Amino acid sequence: MLDDFLVRAGLAGIGTALAAAPLGCFVVWRRMAYFGDATAHAALLGVALSLALQGPVMLGVLAAALVMAITVQAMTGVGLAQDTSLGVLAHSALAAGLVGVSFISGVRVDLMAYLFGDILAVTVTDLALIWGGAAIVVGLMIWRWQRLLTATLNPDLAQASGISARVEGLVLTIALALTVAVAIKAVGALLIGALLVIPPAAARPLARTPEAMALLTALIGCAATLLGLAGSLQFDTPTGPSIVCAAAAAFAVSAVGARIWSKR
Q: Which domains does the chain have, with CATH numbers?
């Protein structure tokens, strides 16, 4: 079954959506959308380093994303506003990655795949890495769910309960880096942030509890992945952007439906 590239692509997309779903909820609740973008932009620098060192691309992306996320946290509160720090680091990392890739022979043809994803070229090894990473992210979110939720929605209660905001922030940082490494094959470095933000934004008006929002986000992400994949094959469009367009359509339907329902 795994010899069929469409089956591999679908499974890779579903694994990516499952990894992004619970983390995306916290990205929306904490207003960390630009933080996700900054981490994702570092992915291309990780790609360049991996290719230069002839190492696994996913490992290089994970390392670069983790370094970026930790650096952003460290720079917060040292005199620069967080959005300024994020802007400087995100664009610098993206530019450095693009320049670095240009120095490596034989990579220019594949640059679009790293920027916008190449889910149709997923191998069985890639699939194992994607689902392994997704399992770690989901397991980490389940393990820390209540503590993360308390630290996010009620910081005063978290402090009174002995929950460390710094530790929970580190957990989110690690999960975000893993998700970026998982998602780069499916949607590429430029659209990972969209996959983290749009499905939970679409689920938010429809969910009554945080857990329901996480589950609905996973369903929307999986549906957008499969619809985007089908649309890409039908209309010969780039797969990664097609997946994001499908998620954006789900958000539009959710927003309009919520507005109509609220007027009843």
A: 5-190 (1.10.3470.10)
Token pair, residue 242, equals 């097609």
- 140-145 long-range contacts (CB < 8 A, ≥24 apart) are 140/171, 140/174, 140/175, 140/178, 141/22, 141/23, 141/175, 141/214, 142/22, 144/168, 144/171, 145/22
3-state secondary structure of 80: strand
Rounded Cα–Cα distance for residues 128 and 140 (Å):
18
Q: CA 62, 41, 255: angle at the middle one, nearest 5? A: 105
pTM for the full predicted model: 0.88
Nearest to 24 by CA among 205, 155, 180: 180
Closest Cα partner for 147 from 174, 120, 133, 165? 165
Whether 125 has a pLDDT exceeding 90, the answer reads no
> Rounded to an integer, what distance in angstroms lies between the CA atom of residue 25 and that of residue 204?
9
